[in-house]
Specification:
globular, 12% strand, 459 residues, 4-stranded mixed beta sheet, single chain, alpha+beta, 3-stranded mixed beta sheet
Length: 459
Amino acid sequence: MCTCGETLKEYADKIEALARAQGLDYYPVDFEMVPNNFMMEIAVYGLPVRMPHWSFGVRYIHQLIRQGMGHSRIFEVMFPGDPCRAYLVNNNTLPENTLVTAHVLGHADFAKNNHLFARFMQMAGGHILEEAAARAHRIERAIQAHGEDRVEAVLDAALALEPHVDITRELHRDRYAETVREEKTPEPTAFLQKFRQLPGEKPLARQEPGTRRAPIPPQAEYDLLWFIAQYGPEMEDWERDIFLAVREESFYFYPVFACQIMNEGWASYWHARLLREADFLPQGLYLSAIKAHSDVVRPYAAEQQLALAVNPYHLGFSIWEDIVEKHGLEAARRICREEDDFGFIRNYLTADLIEKLELFVYESRDDGDIRITEKDVHAVHEAILSPKFNYGAPRIAVNHMHVDGSLQLVHDHKSDGRGVDLGRAERVLEYLGRVWRRPVTLHTVGERGEARVVTSKRV
């Protein structure tokens, strides 16, 4: 473990021994100290080494502005795997990095035991960082072979569809069956049998079952990245590889997205618990670490006494403390294994806890005033969870691929509950038209529920 001094390594080793004694179960964790600018790049790209694209530069500038305004500070980034990889900022104080070490161990325990994280590990293995670096290298080779403009056009389309995967399906899927069996001719009715027995009528020929070409797709297909990579009429292998690379990384990131409140709360619960029981820490360091903990899990920004956004650290930590107090640690471990944020919030963010944490639903008026509209438990649950549904993206499916290769997409607005930004949809279809090389249409609805069709401008 790279450190700014032997003292942190000494504390980290003792905290890890304490974590094991407390029953935390995780894959080995490799810690590395990095400068703040490198940590910023990791947080923006999502991985230490990832495919190059202009959109990451935009995110970097946005993160830099937020950090400069004091709205965001990154203490650590941890990547689940076997081993887990954790990056700590080298200019954090010793108390901060001591707390962060305990926090990372909580993340590692969650990642090994939660069912969503375990499912991805089973499908893809535990070496995402090495695989992401290899994919980035293949894309660099594609740039050299085909030119930056062509590769960027494919990345534009793939990254625009990054959330459009079907996480209920397997990472590695076969193509659809090419044919389907025809149904047998139904038995004739009594009337038809009598009709066929009339003089001059030939007996009804009995048709044996056969096969016919299967439609593409055979049912609504929500995994757009997979479908385009498999069925793009004129896509080259390197283009398909980019779509599948983006898809695999989207599968990897989904558990982090879907369990953010649970995961950050679990890590915060364990860093607080481990620090309380770490009697080997000097009192001054312990007090400074607890002050850092309070800063991480507080509900309010800076000195404000009202928060208009949920702090996942604060909310998750509060729910886990409530669960452990009411049901015990073993029940908390079971919930950690079995739930994601949807079940966690709906089942364990109680009305009493909502009142205690002063959670509410609000609306912003045109004149700038903020008005509280709901404190009902179900309204608060849905306000927290609705941005998480379907990776936060509109629910779009491939509905039909026509004989000429043109593609029809449909917006499942009835189950979705969110609209489509038509301007953004036009840009995404423009990107998609470049790689599909046939017309692409999206059927959706407008603000008043009227039918709308968006068509790619390029073929």
